[in-house]
Write a structure and sequence with these properties.
- The protein has a domain at about 25-200: Alpha/alpha barrel (Glycosyltransferase), CATH 1.50.10.
- The protein contains 18 helices and no strands.
- The protein has helices spanning about 5-30, 35-50, 55-70, 75-90, 115-125, 135-150, 160-170, 175-185, 195-230, 240-250, 255-280, 285-295, 305-330, 330-335, 345-350, 355-380, 385-400, 415-425.
- Helix 1 crosses helix 9, helix 5 runs parallel beside helix 7 and helix 10 (about 240-250) packs across helix 11 (about 255-280).
- The protein is globular.
- Keywords: Metal-binding.
Length: about 425
């Protein structure tokens, strides 16, 4: 056997053993941490470092205690942190919590404008607003204004300066957790009051998961290679890695390996459909394919054009395999940039006879409205929070793929740095 392989296996075993030991130490830390401020910071650090999936029970117990305990802090940072943590996990907290930082005129006091850490905490927390909360809209505007001034004047020290810059681009509740984790791992040891064992576990866990994800990437690449070779559809895009990355953004945890691969394959097959409908097939061929899919039977092959018959066969076969895999799974038992397609922006422009600026503003408004609906769902369906979180993850993935008016799914180079950070470059230990 290859000695290099043996070394890698030993190294992985060591990381697993070390990670398990650290998990035990951190569980003890949760049990002995009784100060509310320290407990909130512990939960926040665990989440920010991407290891919250290892401590779900501990986090739930801590937040239940925090929600039920009297809280009289006069720190903007702590009040906003409590607000964000509780709302993220489906606990109701009133925006009135921030009234203590307002003057008699109902506006935020100017003295808190000199507290960058508190302002950043307020800015991130306020983005968990729901419909009908103008006071949180005001909080966002107030915090953003002063954070932008501080950022422009370069008065912020690292790592706070980097965190403010990222938040102004995309607030923390709307970021993709794993990308934010990569950034925060390099910043955490510079944070006051950091806990070294949290960072060590975060790096070990990231590398262990990365190894799993790399193996899955190899497997789905082989699956696509076989599928592509059989179908002989040269016009379709190879977006295997992007499809896997999209699925990963919703289900990155080790326990979701089956779901991750299942969704990645669905997205890849959907890409074949998308390219066929949008970039190649005639209107009549599109209708024929649609009829065949509605019938969902091998007998429908005869109505398809020759070049789509193999794709249809593979589509049926793959979904039959998906059905068997799901039924055998133990846990279950328990656009425009493709050349000739109008974008949603152009459709809105044409239908309403407005400029692109007006169309973008309207779509941004719709997106903002849906974020509030998503935030409200967390609070109204607390018992379904794990499922709701997957919807949030999907929403965040859309931001990552289609941010800044770009289509990173079509133009994969836009995602190259992120893909390499997630799947190629391990965290330094």
């Amino acid at each position: 056997m290859d000695p290099c392989y043996n070394f890698m296996q030993r190294s992985e075993r060591w990381m697993q053993e070390r990670a398990e030991k650290l998990r035990g130490q951190i569980r003890t830390l949760f049990g002995t941490c009784h100060d509310m401020s320290a407990r909130m910071n512990l939960v926040d650090s665990v989440q920010h470092l991407g290891i919250d999936h290892l401590f779900q029970e501990e986090i739930e117990d801590a937040l239940t205690s925090i929600h039920g305990s009297e809280f009289r802090s006069s720190s903007l940072y702590e009040v906003a942190l409590r607000f964000r943590l509780l709302r993220e996990h489906g606990f109701w907290v009133s925006p009135d919590a921030f009234n203590k930082f307002k003057g008699d005129d109902g506006k935020f006091r100017n003295d808190i404008a000199n507290d960058p850490k508190g302002l950043l905490s307020l800015y991130n927390a306020a983005h968990l607003l729901i419909h009908g909360e103008p006071e949180l809209e005001e909080a966002i505007s107030f915090a953003r204004k002063h954070l932008e001034l501080m950022s422009q004047d370069s008065v912020l020290n690292p790592p706070l300066a980097e965190q403010v810059k990222r938040a102004l681009s995309l607030p923390l509740p709307r970021t993709f957790k794993r990308v934010e984790t990569i950034c925060y791992m390099s910043e955490y040891e510079r944070e006051a009051g950091n806990i070294p064992i949290l960072l060590e576990l975060a790096k070990l866990d990231f590398n262990l998961l990365q190894h799993i994800h790399l193996e899955e990437l190899k497997a789905i690449s082989e699956w696509w290679k076989d599928l592509y070779g059989y179908m002989e559809l040269r016009y379709i895009r190879d977006r295997t890695i992007e499809a896997y990355a999209w699925s990963y953004m919703m289900f990155y945890e080790e326990d979701f390996a089956f779901t991750r691969m299942f969704v990645a394959k669905i997205i890849a097959l959907d890409t074949v459909m998308d390219d066929t409908y949008d970039a190649h097939a005639t209107i009549e061929e599109c209708r024929q394919l649609n009829t065949a899919i509605q019938r969902w039977d091998k007998s429908a092959i005869s109505i398809l054009p020759e070049y789509l018959k193999k794709f249809y066969i593979k589509l049926l076969i793959n979904f039959e395999e998906f059905e068997h895999q799901v039924s055998d799974n133990e846990k279950y038992k328990r656009g425009k940039n493709k050349g000739d397609v109008a974008s949603s922006v152009e459709c809105y422009m044409n239908e309403n006879r407005v400029t692109s600026e007006v169309a973008f503003a309207k779509i941004d408004s719709l997106v903002e409205d849906e974020w509030r609906t998503t935030n409200q769902t967390r609070l109204e369906h607390g018992t379904l929070l794990p499922m709701v979180q997957r919807v949030v993850n999907f929403t965040v993935s859309m931001v990552l793929f289609y941010d800044d008016r770009n289509d990173a799914y079509t133009f994969a180079a836009l995602l190259r740095e992120i893909i390499e950070s997630l799947f190629v470059r391990p965290a330094p230990i």
